[in-house]
Design brief:
single chain; about 280 residues; alpha/beta; two-stranded antiparallel sheet; 10 helices; 10 strands; binds S-adenosylmethionine
Length: about 280
Amino acid sequence: MNYRHDYHAGNFADVLKHVVLARVLTYLKNKPSPFRVIDTHAGAGRYDLWGPKADKTGEWRDGIDRLMHKELPEPAAGLLAPYLDAVRAINGASELRFYPGSPLIARQLMRADDVLIANELNKEDFERLRSEFHRAKATIVLNLDAWHAVKSLLPPKERRGVVLIDPPFEERSEFSDLLAALAAARARFATGVYLVWYPLKDEPAADRFVAELTAEPGTKFLEVRLAVCKPFAGLGLTASAMLILNPPYVLREELQSIMPVLRERLAEGEGSGYQLRDSL
Ligand SMILES: C[S@@+](CC[C@H](N)C(=O)[O-])C[C@H]1O[C@@H](n2cnc3c(N)ncnc32)[C@H](O)[C@@H]1O
């Protein structure tokens, strides 16, 4: 397990993932009953964009940095506000130095009685996460192997909630690990909102994953893909996706407003684009 998110925090893939997370949490808050967020691969929680690791790749400069300082058109600006406000919440008024990972963004957008479970296997990142949430209420930080833990954490007591699964994709088995984990999770908590992130390095493999995951008739899903340019040998990741099972009914329309703006702001050359697919 070599992956460290410090190198990639705030890049275009994080932006897509965290925008979707923020929209889903914003929707869940329309109802007063509490919900739970289970973040299976939570990372360290807070990333120093001026530190040597983020500086080495500079990926955040082609991600969050392109959204923070320039005016955005409506209605995208309003829809992106909860996410951008969560980023601003850990920075000074005009500076962008720190990037909040998924558990910090989630906690920022959750209410006092909504419960966050943030799980991270890497010991060092787990310790950072634990100290980040040292004083936080209704927040549990775990140091478990997500592929085993996800089953034992479901169903949530509240019977309402989101499971974010964001593996590092270092292993070839990650699509099959995801399928197995999601089958077990959905058997325990069929009505949960599942958010799954994956890279689009091997598009046929991603297509097979989506086809298998959504094969059962009646499966409600929405998939959003974002490419910042066409694939280039040696350029690293140029496209990624989020799949949402049991998406809020408003999410497709919201993403139809948001995605053209993200594509335009995050494009790195020819071949940028986005795609939305759903079960309707
Ligand atoms: C892509 S990063 C997570 C980023 C985070 N979700 C965010 O959006 O800010 C993936 C994380 O999964 C952790 N990880 C890898 N294998 C794991 C496993 N089997 N169980 C739990 N965490 C794991 C890695 O240490 C890494 O911090």
